[in-house]
Every structure is written in C-alpha cells, then in structure tokens.
Design a protein that fits this description.
two-stranded antiparallel sheet; mainly alpha; elongated; 81 residues; Arc Repressor Mutant, subunit A
Length: 81
C-alpha cells in the first residue's frame, strides 16, 4: 500500500471517531471558530448550539457567548483539510 493510501485510511479512521454533525452545526462551528466568544452567537445558530455543546465541540464562555474546544478545532481540521 502506498503512502497516500495509508494517509487517507488513517484520516477516515480519525473522522469516524467524531459524531456526525448537521450542516447547521458545522456552519455554527465554523462561525464560532472564526469569531469565538468575542461576539454573541447569532440567533440562527441557537438550535445547532445544543448539538455542539452535547458533543463537546464548544463551551459556554459567558451569557450568549460560546467558544470552541480543542475537539471542535480537531473536527474542523479533519473535515476540511
């Protein structure tokens, strides 16, 4: 097996360790990664927030504010390399 095939197989295994997120949750996670706790979370992401909190990808950093966890950053890194 060549090196690129091995790398792709390993990437798929790492992705399998993460839960599958809804498209809305992925967009919310990207927004949180970009803006972090510096801005209140947009109202449109409120439903996705519960999914992200439950999966441990974000945490409450203040009233109406969330920030991304290391797991959240790893998810984005794996999904969008």
């Amino acid at each position: 097996m060549d090196e690129s095939a091995t790398m792709e197989r390993n990437r798929r295994r790492r992705r399998a360790m993460f839960p599958t997120l809804s498209p809305e949750a992925i967009e919310a996670l990207k927004w949180i990664d970009q803006f972090g706790s510096g801005r209140p979370l947009p109202v449109g992401f409120r439903l996705a927030l519960e999914e992200l909190l439950n999966d441990g990808f974000v945490y409450q950093s203040g009233p109406d504010r969330v920030d991304i966890t290391d797991d959240g950053k790893a998810y984005l890194s794996e999904a969008y390399d």
